[in-house]
Amino acid sequence: MHTEDNWITTPVTMDLLRGALDLERTEHGVLPHRLPARARAQCADGQLAMAESQPSGVRLAFRTRATVVELDTLPTKRVYVGAPPRPDGVYELLVDGCPAGRGSVTDGHTVTVDMTTGSVEHRAGRPGTLRFTDLSDSIKDVEIWLPHNETTELVALRTDAPVEPAPDPGRRVWLHHGSSISHGSDAAGPTSIWPALAASLGGVELINLGLGGSALLDPFTARTLRDTPADLISVKIGINLVNLDVMRLRAFTPAVHGFLDTIREGHPTTPLLVVSPILCPIHEDTPGPSAPDFSNLSAGQLRFVAMGDPAERASGKLTLGVIREELARIVAQRATEDPNLHYLDGRDLYGEGDSVELPLPDNLHPDAAAHRHIGERFAELAFATDGAFADRGGN
């Protein structure tokens, strides 16, 4: 039995976090961010604010002899009017790299969204406590992966033994940017999103800038990638540009060049992998935008439909097929002067056969099984001896 006198409370600071680029002090504690404050100040979009504050790939990492760990958090839950309740976000415990527990915090703030009207209601809540017990009393490296899909303020970290930042694992750092698919969409938990799984299989440290609905070639995102130390970089481009219908081919090509130019300002020779979209049948040949189909929402089924007209491709509207062709051309053109720039067709991660075996439940996002498949395929292709991310000993 632990009493208050037994507990050691350790302030959560950046040296206890991996995968976060900024830490904001709040009324209750600290809030990890995946975009720095300067980038956040350049866009007032609510979707981006939600996405970057959801700590996909962010984890506490410390060394300790503690047998009990408690973490007080204040999550923000999302409720959609007319839909069944969403499951609580999942926290996953790793001890010396091995899964050792998982849990959720049921309390927290609530944001209620009516997708038919666009109205949003905020209701304040209280912190809750995550507790892991019966850990060995030996010195060990502990990671607590935060929910990939739930904004999470960190209020207090308590243990029954002192905590110190985990030592540098000496692994290469992989910096990845993409859409909600990279963010985690419907993965089973934070270590099961496809970038986290691929990072584990590839033996690298992940910084995940997968931003749901927000992979839009934004200059502030390119500058964030430029300014973040990394040994490997990948950018997955395409699906959000189509399903939000934000630009035409005339703007797309120079925007991609500008995005890559900015990254190269900070990482002139770092392996840089451009990944085109995975297969998404509704947008292969049909432009966006996408729109939600609410007809089965009460049964927990939300699907998306493509609202564009295939004939609009002639006027420069983007489809996934158009984007893949143009990305392949851009990379081939640039690679003549940039031997560390590589291209991966997203259909090699999830293609025609995969869509039959593992269909996208809502027509846009992979489920947990598909996340695993994509992560395994990415690791096989990118980290292979002839892959873009092969460890060539610094040569």
What do you see in this structure?
This protein is of the alpha+beta class. The chain is built from 10 helices and 21 strands. The strands form 5 sheets. Strands 1, 6, 9, 10, 11 and 13 form a 6-stranded mixed β-sheet that branches. Strands 2, 5, 7, 8, 12 and 14 form a 6-stranded antiparallel β-sheet that branches. It is globular, with a radius of gyration of 21 Å. The protein starts with 7 loop residues before the first strand and ends in a 13-residue tail after the last helix.
What can be said about this structure in brief?
The protein is an alpha+beta fold and 395 residues long.
Biggest pleated sheet: 6 strands, mixed
In terms of DSSP E residues, the strand content is 25-35%
Total beta strands: 21
Q: What is the gyration radius calculated from CA atoms?
A: 21 Å
Number of helices: 10
Characterize the overall form: globular
- Name the poorly predicted regions: none
Structural class by helix and strand composition: alpha+beta
Question: Mean pLDDT, nearest integer?
Answer: 95
N-to-C terminal Cα separation, in Å?
54 Å
In helices, the fraction of residues equals 10-25%
